[in-house]
Design goal:
Length: about 140
C-alpha cells in the first residue's frame, strides 16, 4: 500500500495503544475520562478511514458514500473486514459523545469503550494487518 495508507494504519495502531491504557486506569483520576473519550474518538475515526481505504483499494468497492462512516462500515461488513454489527453502536456512541458537555455520556459508556469496543477495534486492527505487511 502507498505510504500515506500505511501511515494511517500505524497511527491507528498507536491510537489503539493509547486507548489500551484506559483499560487499567482509575476512572476517578482527573484526566482518565476525557482522555479516554478523546482516544476513543480518534481511534474510531482512524479505524473507519482505514476500513474505507481497504474497501476501496483492496476490494474495489466504490459504490458507497466514501465520506460516510456508516456506509463505510456497511461496506466493510459486507466484504468481511469487520464481523460484528456492534460497530454501528460504536458509531452512535462516537456521535453522541460529541454532544457530551458535562461528561455524563462518557461516564455511561466508559465500560463499553474500554471493554467491548476496545476488543472490536483491536480485532479489526489485527485482522487488517495482513494488508499492510504483504510484499
Amino acid at each position: 500500500m502507498e505510504s500515506k495508507y500505511f501511515n494511517r494504519y500505524k497511527s491507528l495502531c498507536k491510537s489503539l495503544a493509547n486507548l489500551k491504557e484506559s483499560r487499567d486506569a482509575n476512572i476517578d483520576d482527573k484526566f482518565v475520562l476525557p482522555a479516554t473519550v478523546q482516544n476513543y474518538n480518534l481511534t474510531f475515526d482512524l479505524a473507519w478511514k482505514v476500513l474505507k481505504e481497504l474497501v476501496t483499494n483492496e476490494f474495489g468497492l466504490t459504490d458507497f458514500a466514501a465520506g460516510s462512516p456508516r456506509e463505510t462500515l456497511k461496506s466493510a461488513y459486507s466484504v468481511g473486514l469487520i464481523k460484528d454489527d456492534r460497530w454501528m453502536d460504536m458509531l452512535r456512541v462516537r456521535n453522541t459523545l460529541a454532544h457530551d458537555y458535562d461528561g455524563q455520556v462518557a461516564l455511561r459508556y466508559f465500560k463499553d469503550i474500554v471493554g467491548d469496543y476496545y476488543v472490536l477495534l483491536e480485532t479489526m486492527v489485527r485482522d487488517v494487518e495482513q494488508y499492510y505487511t504483504k510484499e
